[in-house]
């Protein structure tokens, strides 16, 4: 059994040249990958640190600008408190619910003129509106704003009232008081109260255009495609510089600043992928150098490995020739190093194997062939004497037809055993030989022997050893026959990939003691010389040695687990079975042996 260190499974074959090439490539590739990875990470980390510092400065400046802007809006919303005419108008309409006094033209003119002065030269302001308690609206946009309002148009009012007169920054909401309601409006507003009684007189509200916050942050821009956001209370997004929200699938570098005065938080988000573009350029340059170096290494590896592997490949080719049985092959020694010494050892080993094959293997094959021929060609004259006496008796009695049948069957037997020299025959040949043998025994034994052959024609051309069935039939006649009629059955069957030939009888059977003796003779280690001295031949059975011969022939030809088995478990008789491989290989001459003999 070959010994392989480690697992019993055969390892995958990898040529030695491939191993050298892979080794060279790894020795060059790994350092480049390590250096490139370290350089890439350090460069990226430095860029990120610089970007974070710059982003912190940017958002701080934007936060300061935004705080100044909100303070200006704060002062703008306080302007009505310093205009007496405007306060008088608001006091007139301070009653809650539907107005008892409608807005007069004079009131509208004064309020709109005052409001327009506040919105002058402020392009980022959509409109400035003053809401009275009784549902009136004053605005600098006289045509596009409704004249009346109610609570259904002012879901944002609760937030303003909660500030109790302070400035309220409203997140994006719907402005339903326009003739065409607007979505996503951002506003600042406050409640206008009576200076002394603090009674609510109305609300001043400033709606910013979508570019309102953009005009503030445009003075300070973040680098590249960074995203700038302004969020209010509860992290509500008031402004997004790119008009979109951050992608949750992308990684960002963030910097933020929050104003204690306004409560607004400015956040800058810069995609890491953008910062890595420069690092990718450095990586690509390194990759180009690596590829050039690798190609040079591949070329050197191929040239060097070819020179190194050539004598090994030559030795390998000779080993393949020897594997096919050409023991005269010798490898040429081209070097004096370890490979040369290995080649010399190979030549010496093959020479010794060639000598051993000739002295041992071929000798053993001839010995086995001679043994097989001896086992199958044995014939004892006792059977011929008995048959000739029966022929003489039939001749004296004048039974010419029966005499002709006996002589014909005897001729077939002699021709099959003596004239037919093939070692392997078809099942059909063996069956015809057994039929001829049974005809002769039937003439001698009469009604005491009844034989039946049940072999399907599908097994006719299965190849079996010659004279493998007749010894079993003869063994039954010699040892199983008593005073009663003997029934003998010959059958064939298939078991997986094997052929099973069985001879069953209902004769005297085998005792337990005799069974042990037979098993010892069949499967025991009795010396060959003693066995040959006692064995019988065709026409003569001595002490079960015919069974031993059959078993030995099958073991010599096919090895284990093939051979002969005995079964005496039935109530009467014994079943002898032969197991041999199912072989459909064609014979040298087509057709059954009987046909070939007749043609000869």
From TrEMBL:
The chain crosses the membrane at residues 20-40. Its EC number is 2.7.13.3. It is a multi-pass membrane protein. Gene3D superfamilies: 6.10.340.10, Histidine kinase-like ATPase, C-terminal domain (3.30.565.10). Its main location: membrane. Keywords: Cell membrane, Kinase, Membrane, Phosphoprotein, Transferase, Transmembrane, Transmembrane helix. It is found in: Cell membrane. GO terms for molecular function: protein histidine kinase activity. CDD domains: HAMP (cd06225). Residues 306-358 form the HAMP domain. This is Sensor histidine kinase. It comes from Paenibacillus rhizoplanae.
């Amino acid at each position: 059994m070959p010994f392989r260190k480690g697992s019993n499974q055969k390892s995958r074959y990898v040529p030695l040249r491939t191993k050298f090439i892979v080794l060279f490539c790894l020795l060059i590739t790994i350092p480049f990958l390590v250096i490139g990875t370290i350089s890439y990470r350090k460069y990226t980390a430095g860029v990120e640190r610089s970007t974070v510092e710059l982003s912190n400065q940017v958002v701080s400046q934007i936060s300061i600008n935004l705080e100044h802007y909100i303070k200006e809006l704060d002062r703008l919303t306080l302007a009505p408190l310093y205009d007496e005419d405007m306060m008088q108008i608001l006091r007139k309409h301070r009653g809650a619910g539907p107005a008892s006094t409608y807005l007069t033209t004079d009131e509208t003119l004064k309020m709109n003129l005052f409001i327009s002065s506040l919105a002058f030269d402020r392009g980022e302001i959509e409109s400035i509106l003053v809401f009275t308690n009784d549902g009136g609206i004053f605005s600098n946009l006289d045509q596009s704003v409704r004249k009346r309002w109610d609570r259904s148009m002012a879901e944002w009012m609760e937030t303003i009232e909660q500030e109790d007169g302070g400035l309220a920054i409203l997140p994006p909401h719907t402005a339903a008081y326009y003739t065409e309601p607007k979505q996503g409006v951002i506003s600042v507003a406050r409640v206008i109260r009576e200076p002394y009684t603090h009674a609510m007189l109305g609300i001043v509200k400033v709606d910013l255009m979508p570019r309102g916050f953009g005009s503030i942050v445009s003075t300070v821009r973040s680098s590249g495609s960074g995203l700038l956001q302004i969020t209010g209370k509860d992290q509500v997004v008031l402004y997004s510089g790119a008009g979109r929200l951050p992608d949750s699938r992308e990684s960002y570098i963030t910097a933020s600043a929050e104003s204690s005065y306004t409560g607004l938080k400015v956040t800058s988000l810069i995609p890491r992928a953008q910062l890595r573009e420069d690092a990718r350029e450095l990586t690509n340059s390194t990759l180009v150098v690596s590829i050039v170096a690798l190609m040079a290494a591949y070329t050197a590896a191929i040239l060097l490995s070819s020179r190194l592997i050539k004598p090994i490949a030559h030795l390998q080719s000779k080993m393949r020739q020897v594997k096919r049985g050409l023991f005269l092959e010798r490898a040429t020694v081209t070097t004096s190093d370890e490979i040369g010494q290995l080649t010399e050892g190979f030549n010496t080993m093959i020479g010794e194997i060639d000598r051993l094959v000739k002295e041992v293997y071929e000798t053993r094959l001839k010995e086995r062939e001679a043994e097989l021929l001896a086992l199958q060609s044995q014939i004892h004259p006792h059977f011929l004497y008995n048959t000739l006496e029966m022929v003489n008796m039939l001749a004296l009695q004048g039974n010419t037809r029966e005499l002709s049948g006996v002589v014909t069957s005897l001729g077939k037997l002699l021709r099959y055993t003596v004239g037919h020299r093939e070692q392997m025959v078809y099942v059909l040949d063996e069956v015809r030989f057994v039929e001829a043998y049974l005809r002769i025994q039937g003439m001698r034994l009469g009604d005491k022997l009844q034989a039946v052959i049940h072999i399907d024609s599908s097994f006719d051309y299965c190849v079996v050893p010659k004279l493998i069935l007749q010894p079993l039939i003869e063994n039954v006649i010699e040892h199983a026959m008593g005073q009663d009629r003997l029934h003998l059955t010959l059958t064939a069957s298939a078991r997986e990939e094997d052929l099973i030939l069985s001879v069953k009888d209902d004769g005297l059977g085998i005792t337990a003691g005799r069974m042990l003796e037979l098993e010892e003779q069949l499967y025991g280690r009795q010396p060959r010389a003693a066995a040959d001295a006692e064995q019988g031949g065709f026409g003569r059975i001595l002490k079960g040695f015919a069974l031993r011969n059959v078993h030995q022939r099958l073991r010599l030809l096919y090895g284990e687990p093939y051979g002969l088995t005995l079964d005496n478990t039935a109530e009467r008789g014994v079943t002898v079975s032969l197991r041999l491989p199912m072989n459909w290989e064609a014979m040298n001459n087509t057709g059954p042996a009987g046909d070939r003999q007749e043609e000869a």
